[in-house]
Amino acid sequence: MGLGSPCTRRDFVERALLATAAVAGVRARAQTTPFRAAATPVIDITDLYHPAQDPGDNFDLVAAYGLPEVDLRAVILDVTERHRHDVPRDAGYIPVMQLNALFDRRVPCAAASSRPLRALDDAAEDGPGIQQWGVELLLDTLRLAEAPVDIVSFGSARPLAIALNREPELLLAKTRLVHLCAGSCDTGPLEWEWSDLEWNVDLDPLAFIRILRSDLPIALYPCATAQGPFSYGAHNCYYRLEDLRFIRDLPRGLRQYLLYALSASGRVDFLRVLEEEPEADVLDAVCARGHHVWETAVWAQVANRRIAQSPGGPWRLTPASEVGDDHHLLPNELLPCEWEIDDRAWLRWQPVAGETRRWMYDRGDPMANEAALREALPALYRSFGEALDSP
Hints:
Helix content is 34%, strand content 19%. By secondary structure, the chain is an alpha/beta fold. The protein has a domain at 16-240 and 332-375: Inosine-uridine Nucleoside N-ribohydrolase, Chain A (Alpha-Beta Complex), CATH 3.90.245. The strands form four sheets. A nine-stranded mixed beta sheet has the order 5-3-1-6-7-8-16-14-15, with helices on both faces. A three-stranded antiparallel beta sheet has the order 12-11-13. A hairpin with a 5-residue loop joins strand 11 and strand 12 (315-319). Helix 1 crosses helix 4 (133-144) and helix 5 packs across helix 6 (168-174). It starts with 8 loop residues before the first helix and ends with a helix. Residues 1-7, 12-37 and 190-194 have low confidence and may be disordered.
């Protein structure tokens, strides 16, 4: 912290949050319905590691910074203890610092408890201090928020469950909508049960149960179907990019960030690497590979963007305000529903016509969705690069 009076952890968090709020204060605030066009205050809970455990988390975090409709307030690192040891890795502070540098932001981040919940009401206050900071950052961010916040959760749902167990009134008052990317779903409601838990649910089944049984407003984006994690259904959000050649078109810093993550680089000069030209063999290898994607549906909802095609044009993730009557649209919807989840973390759901605090993701034809996003997502990332290049 440099010379001067001592600064406690809470002082540091509050200063970082206040600085972030000051920067974001000129932006429009979120409204109170699940769908609107204003900039959205967002807390991102992500199972982000360094080196990457799933480089898709590093890849998708770019959207939180690049989408102008997203007012990113904090990143909560959802760490599971076993993933710190299967290979040497730890919480993803480094990719957050890289993106803060690239986008000239001051988004604070901190890691939450790495052990699974022991009971549905577990507040997880017994872990190391550094693993308390993530939940405390989440709660502090909500306290400072001047309007309800969207919370996106990619991973175990444990940080959110712990926060809810510690301060339920705050969570209920300051959460506009939880976008929970986890679980498994087949093509129709009430016709199936999980036989195997999807991997995010399996990281902490009690956390998943706690959130889905809560009174929080929740949109559920299943990651898998009963056929497995890399399968396609109308209600799961998985698709695959054929290759990553578009990375060649990005400006140096953003390109280097993605190459650093996708090559699982362990270089310690993680900021200087953003200033370099790519190694040709690394660039060729990364650009030639396919890539698994799960988060696009969530960011499209948060940013109020549509999967749209202008007459004779390509597919794009287009702001809703720019979609014309002549555009062709694909569904990327949240269906009002209700669900039940049992003690095994198996879930059943059904659509409803009345008021609800539950929504299920729906994309219609998954193959049409994938084909369109194979055009739209590279174009979106190129637009982030163009914004970074602008004075």
